[in-house]
From TrEMBL:
The keyword Electron transport does not apply. Transmembrane segments: none annotated. Pfam families: Phage_integrase. This is Tyrosine-type recombinase/integrase.
Amino acid sequence: MSLAKLAHWVRRHISDDEMRTSQLAQHLRVYWKLARLQVWLFPGLDQSKPIDVPVLNSACRSACDAAGIEKRVTVHTLRHSFTTHPLKSGTDIRIIRVLL
């Protein structure tokens, strides 16, 4: 999903109160401003394309190493957690589906 589509969808479906309380949203806003993104939330070397899968997997391994996480964590694990936690908190499945 492009950055513009994601931003448009978030503005339409997530209330201001939900956005204000979301730490993730706050971190993404800072990242968005600092990185001066144009199209993708996580662009590749070519700014017009998303980050490459091997680069994403490498970043995930590096982050786990830096955090001292010894369990096997993959990008799929993060995707699963991203889905499961909001769902358990009562977030509408349609919102989660669009974000994925």
